[in-house]
Amino acid sequence: MNVTYYGICLITTALCLCTPASAGPLSTPITDNQFAADTLIIGVETTDYAPYYHLQDNRYSGLGRDILDAFLADAHLMADYYPLPVPRLFLLFTQQQLDFKFPDNPQWSEDLKSGLTVYYSEPVIQVTEAVMILNDHQGPVRNIGTIMGFTTPGINAEIQRGELTITQVNSMDQMLKMLENRRIDGIYFNTRAARHAAAERASPLTLTTLKQIAPYHYAYHLSSIRHPHLIERFDRFMHDNPEVIRALRQSYNIP
Question: Does the predicted model carry a pTM greater than 0.90?
Fold first, then answer.
């Protein structure tokens, strides 16, 4: 896809960056007429990771989008956000049907990326993942819930030693219901996003970090196979506009 520079279409103060509706089956390719010509396609997750990213009224929202929107406006680029379940997101990205993927990390789905040159931005958002349990949990912690397609770098050693087993689910809501009903002992997730989701439920849950396993700290990146020059341009934007990034983070109370 050739990148054409456009003026950004503004509706009041919002960027006119469209979010396509529901995604199809895992193997369904993106069709030629699904997106406007010369519009960059940013593959994103349908996972509820508020405040970092989530779908709100069928619109991709959160800190991640706000940072990407600021870059697109600065660079005079048009883009569509394409929300997908994690397995299909990785599949379409590695099939080079997407211009960008957010978030991404070199540790995620390394087998699917084998043989490909993937370009990663500098860290966009620093995060912490951990095993989290209900505050009143009693007994051992063995069965851990996670989202289907997620990589679990913070507990890989425990899984390989047979100390933990994984139950994969489709959504954060399903995972918290299983935790509430004691069908799993804990969850492996972004700690801030997990606490946010648990507190926002109709029946709020109180989560605590499992002390026996150290939290895992790493970062979310923007990635691309097709546009290394735009990854470099995004890095320059982040470097040259720290006050913009700082203000966006502060708007979500993220240090």
Answer: no
